[in-house]
Structures are given as C-alpha cells and as structure tokens.
Amino acid sequence: MFCLKEKLKLRVFVNYIGSKRYASSVLGNAYQPKAVEKQELPLDETANYPKKGVFSMIFPPPNVTGNLHLGHALTATIQDVIIRRQKEKDLEVLWIPGMDHAGIATQVVVEKNLMRERSMSRYDLGRQKFQEEILKWKTLREKDIRANLKSLGLSFAWEREYYTMNEGQCKAVTKAFVELFEKGLIYRDTDLINWSCSLESAISDIEIDNVEINGPTPIPVPGYEKNIIFGEITNVAYRVEGGSETDEIIVSTTRPETLLGDVAVAVHPDDDRYSRYRGRDTKLWHPFREISIPLIFDEGVDQAFGTGAVKITPSHDKWDFSLAKRHNLPHVDVIDERGRIFLGFGSFSDLPRFTARERIKDSLAQLGLLRGTKSHSMILPRCSRSGDIVEYLKKPQWYLKCQEAALEAVEAVRAGRMKIVPEEFQSEWFRWLQNCHDWCISRQIWWGHRIPAFECSSGDSTKWIAAESVAEALEKAEKIFQGKVDKIKRDTDVLDTWFSSGLLPLSVFGWPEKSKDLEKYFPLDLMETGHDILFFWVARMTMLSLMLTGEIPFRKILLHGIICDSQGRKMSKSLGNVILPEQVINGTSIEELIQQSEHFHRSGIISEAEMKRSIDEVSKNHPNGIPECGIDALRFTLCSYNISNHFVNFDTAECHANKLFFNKIWQASRFTIKAFESVNPKPEDLTKGLENFSEMDKWILEKLFCTQKVVKDSIDRYSFHLATAALKTFFYSNFCNVYLETTKSSINAKNSKATGHLLTLRTCLVEGLKLMEYFTPFLVNELLKFLPNAPSLSNLDKIHAEVHIEQIIEICATIRGIKSQNNIVKKNNPQLVIWADNSFIPEVRKHSETIKTLAMIPDLKIIDDRGVFNEEKCSIKSVAKHFCWFGIHVNNIKETKENNPAEQKLAKLLSSLHKLEEIVKDEGYQRSAPESKKEKHKEKIKRLTAEINAIKELHQL
Fold first, then answer.
1. pTM check: above 0.90
2. SS3 of 662, please?
3. pLDDT at 894 (0 to 100)
4. In whole angstroms, what is the distance from residue 330 CA to residue 324 CA?
5. For residues 176 and 49, what is the distance between their CA atoms, to the nearest angstrom?
6. Are 885 and 869 in contact (CB under 8 A)?
7. What residues does 453 pair with on adjacent strands?
8. Can you tell me the distance from the alpha carbon of 723 to that of 85, in angstroms, rounded to the nearest whole number?
9. Which of 339, 448, 489, 446 shows the shortest CA–CA distance to 125?
C-alpha cells in the first residue's frame, strides 16, 4: 500500500501578497481578460543559468503592409509554445523576430494610398521620392506590427529583431548575388514570365490566384471602367491556302486578342478530322498580318479542347512557347508591359488588350471568319496584389539555376539530415524539387534590393558584371575588356522578395561574416511555417543555404495548416470572413465589421458587388458581432486545432467558450483561496495533512500526473490540440466538476480531511497552471500571484488511487445523465436506490457520501439483494455498470416510452458492440493487430455484452 510519508517529497512555493497569507479579496470575482492581460509578463529568471544545449528558431517575417492577421497569430503562438517547452528542458533558446520589406505588396499599398490621398502615382513622384514615401509607411506600420506581436505575450529576442532591408541584410543579399553570379548559378536570359501589366513587373507564382470560372463572368480589371467578361471560348476560322472557300481550320481560343501573334496552328497527328492534311506542307492565311502560317502536328495537342486545332502564340502562352521551341517557330510580340497592343498592328495598335479583344472579334465577323462564341469553364490567373489578369510576356530577366541544389535538398530529407513534419509533405517536397525550374529572381518595381549587376560596354562589346559597388564593377570590367570601359550602367530591376527572405537563416547571424553566432546557432533547429509556402520560401532557403555554405539551413521543418473560417473557406476580404486578432481579443460590433467591409471598398480593395456580398456574409456569420475573448483565449483556441491538417477552421464561438473555461479555473482558484481562509491551517497542520489524503485526493493527483505527461509529450510531438484537450478534460471534467465538489463538506466541517484537500487543491492548481502557461501565460501569471503559501506536492507519479474510484465516478456520471434526460431537479426531491453485486457493494458503502455529492442526490439507499431491488418501486430504473443497477424515486416525473433512458442506452450499447464486432471480424485485423489490442477488444466486448444483458434483464426488454 502506498505510504505518503515515505514517498512524497515537498517543494515549497512562497507567494505572500503583502502581509496576508491568503488573498481571495484581491482576486477579482470573475475572469476579465483586459484586466489580466494588461499586466506585463515576468522576465525569464533562468536566462543566465547554465544550459544543457541550444535551440534556435526565426519567426517568418510579416510584411510591412498592415497589421497582423490570424495566420501570423497562429504561427507566433505555435512557436511560442515550442520555445516555452525548450526553456523548460534547460536549453538556451534564441527566437528571432523580424519584418519583411515585401517589395510588390508594399509598393501596391503605398501607391494606392498615394492615389487615394493625393491623386498621384509613383511616376508623378519619381523613384527616390516614392521610396521615401514607402519608408514613411514602413516606419508607421512596423510600430503596429511590433505592438501586435508583443501583445500576444511572445518571448522573442527583441534585441535581435531584423528587417530585410537593414544594412546587414542588404550586405548579405548583395554578397549572395555576386557569389552566385560568379559561380555561374545566376544568369540573364529572355524567357516567358508571369507579368502584371498594372504593376509593370514580373511576379512569382505565389502572387497569382488561379480563379475558377464557370461560364461568362464579369470581372473588374485595373484600368478598365467596365468589367471584362471571362469564361467564353471563341471559334475562329483559318482558311487553307490553295483550297476551296470552305476549306478552313477552326481554332478555339479564350484569348482572341493574341490572334495577332499567331505563328502556327497545331493539331494532334492522330486526329482523324485533319488526316487529309498529313504529309502535306499546309499553309494557313493570317487575316491581320496577311502572311502564311503553317499547320503543324504535335502530340501535345489536346484533341478534346474545342475543335482539336489550337492557335500557337509563343510570345504569350507558356505551352505555346515550349511547342515553338520544338518546332523552331518564330515569336511575334503583341502585348506590351502596360497591357496595350504593340505598334505595327494597324487599327489595333496601342489599344488596351481587352478593348482589342472585342475589336478583333468584330473584325473577324466582318471578314466572315468568326464561328461563334460560347460558354467555357476555365482557370483565370489573377495577380493577388493588383487584381490584374496575368499576362505571359517574353522579357529579359535574371534567373537562378536551381536543379543541382534542389536535388541536394531532396537528398537531405531522404537521408534524414532534415526532417519534415507532418511526413505527408515529404512527397510534396520531392515533387516540387525533383522538377524544379530555374527561378526568375528579378522584378521591375521600385521597392526592394536593387540588383547588383552592371551592364558594361567597351566598343561594340557588352558584358553583364555582378559587383558590390560601381568601383568594383569598373575594376572587373577593365580586366575583362583589357582596357578602357566606355559605359557602365546599373540594372534598375530589384530582386524578388523571396531572395532576401531566403537568406534569413544565414543573414540573421551576420553572414557573410564568420561570426560566433553563425557558428553557435546555425543551422536553425526548427523552421515552423504554413505549408502553403513550403516551396516558395522553405525550399528556397534550403537551396540558397546549400549553394552558399553547403549546409542545410535547419534540422527540422514543421508545417501548419492555412487559417480558414468556421465553414472551411479561406479568409478573403471579398467574402467578408477576414477576422483580425485584435477583433477577437477586444471584441467588435456588427457595425464595426460592416464598416470594415465598406473601408475595403473605399480603398479599392474590393468592388461594390463584393462589398455587398461581404456585408451579407458578416451579418449572417456574426449577427451580434464578435464577443471579447482575450489574448489567452485566442492563443489557446489556435492551438486547439490539429495544425497538421491542411486547413485550420477558426471559430470565434469556440474562442469565447475557452474564455468561459478560463473563468472556471478562475473560480476554482477563488474557491481554493477561500478554503484556505476558512480552514486557516497552521504550517504544521499542512504537513500533517499529508497523512489525511482521501481516495479522491489520490485520484485527482493521479489524473494531474497523467495530464502532465500527455501535455508535455503532445507538445514535443507538435500535437498541440491533444495538449489543450487534456487540459480541458483535467480542469473541467476532473478537477472542477468532480474533485472540487467532493471537498466541500470536509472543508466546511474543517475536519481531518480538510488539510489534505487544501494541499491537493493547491497542487492541482499550481501544477495544472504551469501546464496551461504554454498557452495562456497571462492567466497563469495572474493566478499564481494569489494562490496560498503552502507545500506543493511532487513525485506525483508515485500516487495511485484505488481502481474503484474511477468506476464510482462513472456511475455518478450515468446517474446525472439520466437525471438530465428526464429533467429531474432538486424540487422533485430525488432519492437514489443502488444495488451492486457482492464484490462492489463495499465500495458503494465506502463512497456513499461521494456518490450523493457527485450524483447531486441527498438521499441514498443501498440494497444488497437484487430481488429486493427489483421489487423497489422507482420512477426510473437503469444500469450504470453490469454489476451496478440504480433507481430514482421522484415526485411528479414519469418515465415515458418516448423518453425511455433504458432503451436509449441499450441502443447506444448495441451500436458500440456491433462496431467492435465488425472490427475484430476483419481479416486484416485478425492478421496484423497486436495481441494486446485483441485482448483489450475482447475484454471490452465482454463488458458491453454483460451490460446489455443487465439492461435487458432489469427492464425485461
């Protein structure tokens, strides 16, 4: 038998509030997040103690374009929980915050702001003054972002905060570009790229939203007063030269404006519709350029698309571009950087591309070549920054060769040097990197890291040179040209933002200098971020690190899902489901949410139609606004979802429910403080209290130990949702709803059990709050100030409650359930009758007071003989366990067939038994399930069968 005196150790926590030993009068009547969270969190007191090792991590930098969104809050909270756990393991942690200059995103926001406030574009200001405006914007926004992050209670190393365009970062970016250029990994070439005509810049794949269009759909496009219709396919006839008037090939296109750049028509060689043209040099007449273009055969043509004949425009379509290479076809550029038709195309010259679309269709009709337009489902690429329709233009750009580094990154994961969690994303990693294309790293915007490349000329010779300065470029050019350099001009383009952020694992530690920090903290121990940027950021960090150092940048990659609304829809301003952290923390009215949608419309972010839809959605989803939840509730809720899922469906109602959960803990703390005040034990009484532990004390302490293990193990496995679930089960179901209720009679009587209860109450709160602190630092910091001065129990793993305690609690839960189903309340004067078999009846007698307390029935009659129990005239009878039956006498309540608890329970048990029997009959289960699992299921089937038979016998069912 367990002996408390021999096994328990004491650890004393002294928490005096002024001169008082207890302070229930100081602790507020209810949990108020604003009052609690305005207090600053204490500094880490163990920071200067000797450590067992190092743990390093960086925070993915938010863009300096606005306030934090829920995605940032999710990332920050996950990382903070991880950091707190590493500190607990006595590791020296370094968690570095920072912000990203966000080239395109910031330029778009500032330029929109300029146009709205001053009716000026960046061209009106000029490059230098426009950059000054961006710097002003950045200074304002970074304060808000920093304040948002600090408000979440994050334990960042703020003194190491970085910004991707500060001096150290700029030095690293320049050095990396020059080094990679000299290694032959960066080169300049003309290729087809994603182009935003509104931004007049190349954009990356991540800045493209592929919108699914099902039939004719009007869509707003920057620069056009009226919406442009997409979702149509147009059939155009190309006449065959030398054939009859009816000898024509009809092509299908969703982009008639590019017809001007057609250089061929292609069909599949096996398409019987065009078999008569095989083996012939077939030419088609181009009606606008008035030249002949060839009919070619290519196996890449989709016979099911349109007529099976497709126009080939290499300068404006990626597939056409690759086909043109295979067939050695020329290129004809039609659309310029501004989205207008190039000069030289007659009446179509200088027209906006979508205006030209309609003019070309009109001209085709006049020429008798238009064969109709019909509805068509398609994927429309839109620039996420500007809302523009993406063009594919052939432009000279800078590229980074990625294939070799990509394969090294694949091998690093295969060899286990770098681990991806969840493992399912490994296949995504391999898929992306094994087919990795060269990376277009140049952008034609004004905000960002200016490319350190110089075009140098000597006579008729021109050479691109990468250098850290003009002087260095001139020196290199003179060596190359072996003499005088006539002209030197720096490229005006800037680098893709992902290039500078891709260097962060190195640059935050002072690279390219060989610093102590680089040696100590690199590679990072963990890179945690959303799975949507696995390739765009994580893979590029890996490739750049391998290219520049030969080392992986981090040992482990943890990926979380994308924040969506409670219905699983991605958060979007046009849907009206965007929720900001501060709206959850502070609460917001329906009027304020509607005003937010109206602000998005006035700012040009969404159209009037989108605003109306947004307001409808807001009114439907949050008719009463969003209630105040607080920072801790936001953190706890974000970690309550399984982050390994592809999507995290955030629900404000769940967040508010967690705030109420914290109030439950708050009230339990008030109860404990008042209990100490009431009993007022002396220190020696508390020490003696260890001898007075009840079985319920032991039970809750055993539950506490199990919860400690589950929470810590779950955090170590990044299963944060299991940790929060375990905490809710412990505090709600075990501590507050069960254990705390059983202590009240002894505490009120101030008997010998009271001191044992006091020690247990305090231990559960102190140790339980330490587990909560990972997620709710503000709540824990506040409550620990007020808990009484008393010994706190350790060696919880040595405490074991009697096995019957769990059964007693389950029986009480069943009784409460029957009472609830039948609306039995105190005024019905319920009386409980229990029969149990011979092996269990002593436990019922021993714990009769606990049963009355937890079942919330003042009178209990215990019957030894089942025959006597059967003769007992009760309003309701049921089975708690197959070895324990009970009945309830009540006033004015009758059991009805419509609400027969016995039949309901029987149906539930039969369903569980059927499911379990189906599992064990499965051949795969029989073949491969562990014997321990088979035995467990066999025992459960036995128990279910016994309970089912008991119910049938009791109710003659």
1. no
2. helix
3. 52
4. 7
5. 37
6. yes
7. 466
8. 12
9. 446
